[in-house]
Amino acid sequence: MREGRDPLIERARTELAEVERQHSEETFRNIAREFVAKCQREGYAEVTLWKKQWLLDMAMPYIGDFLVRETRPIHVLQVLQKVEAKGQYETARRLRSTIGSVFRFAIATARCDLDPTVSLRGAIATPKVKSHAAITDPEGFGALLRAIDGFGGQPQTVAGLKLLALLFPRPGELRLSKWPEYDFKRCVWTIPAERMKMRVEHKVPLAPQAIAILNQLREFSGHKEYVFPGLEGSSEKSLCENVFNQALRRMGYEHDEMTSHGFRSSASSLLNDSDIWNPDAIERQLAHAEANLVRRIYARNAHWKLRVQMMAWWADYLDELRTTATSKKMVA
């Protein structure tokens, strides 16, 4: 015994401190942080890392400080039920999967022995897959825009995704477009009636951001028939039907999260949520059919000036989302 200290007590204190240190490092919060860092080292796309962290952040207030060895299925189920109660069934399903990935990482690194999410299969509502799934919240759409900017696909594919966001046509209307349809002096794209769903010619105002993308494409495919020539380089064929959806999958967006057709729903939701633009102008820009014949005839040329202003605002708004990814509203 030195200086009045009992060596046995001091050793016990040291061992206890070591146990507490190890335990503090084995919380779900810390293991999740290690898991996301591992995914980053493995080269996951920025948007994929963002989605994993976004999901894990939902769980932190409830199980973040739990030791992974002591976390039970009921603890995780309570987290999932809070998300499910909001009607966010798909998010709850993905949250369960992501939490499970963290526990499997903890098992692999000898920090726990059980993945509590395994026994939760079927414990929450199964989401119904919607056709034309779309991202309709500003933050998520901003993340998508950044993912497109950083996507390393073919030039015509990347440009097509950017124009789908800017102009929100039906994917086939854009994919099959030809250079004579674009009037660069008047800044308008005229889609011929035979390619429109309702067989009525449709005009799309082109904001400066859209013109810039098209000018870049002209250097690539201006000498060809199609604006978006096939990946094989043939001037007689356009991009294949599924190329934009395949690109979204490569960026980490599943079929029930975002589709190429979903850009239309994204634009419709965000434009309507802005409380700035006339809903009729939004519908006209989407080329939705008017049930009333008289109104349909009137709608062919209606709201043109307003739609020009709206599309310019929309392009600027996307630039804002791209850099801030916030829900801040811009003024017209």
Tags for this model:
332 residues; DNA polymerase, domain 1; hpI Integrase, Chain A; 2 domains; 3 strands
Structure write-up:
- The protein is mainly alpha-helical and 332 residues long.
- It folds into 2 domains: 13-120, DNA polymerase, domain 1, CATH 1.10.150; 138-324, Intergrase catalytic core (hpI Integrase, Chain A, Orthogonal Bundle), CATH 1.10.443.10.
- Helix content is 55%, strand content 3%.
- It has helices at residues 7-25, 28-41, 46-63, 73-84, 89-108, 138-149, 155-167, 171-175, 208-221, 243-250, 262-273, 279-285, 293-299, 304-324, and strands at residues 182-183, 188-191, 202-205.
- The chain has a 3-stranded antiparallel β-sheet with strand order 1-2-3.
- Helix 4 (73-84) runs antiparallel to helix 5, helix 6 packs across helix 14 (304-324) and helix 7 runs antiparallel to helix 9.
* Domains (count): 2
By secondary-structure content and strand pairing, the structural class works out as: mainly alpha
- What is the 3D form? elongated
Number of strands: 3
In terms of quaternary structure, what is this?
A: single chain
Taken as a percent bin, the fraction of beta residues is: under 5%
Q: Give the fraction of residues assigned to helices.
A: 40-55%
Main β sheet profile? 3 strands, antiparallel
- Point out poorly predicted stretches: 291-295, 326-332
Indicate the mean pLDDT.
85
Which CATH class of the largest domain applies here? Mainly Alpha
Radius of gyration: 26 Å
Helix count equals: 14
Which sequence of strands runs across the widest sheet? Answer: 1-2-3
At the fourth CATH level, what is the homologous superfamily of the largest domain? Intergrase catalytic core
| SSE order | HHHHHHHHEEEHHHHHH
CATH topology of the largest domain, anyone?
A: hpI Integrase, Chain A
Q: From the coordinates shown, what is the CATH architecture of the largest domain?
A: Orthogonal Bundle
Q: CA-to-CA gap between the ends?
A: 79 Å
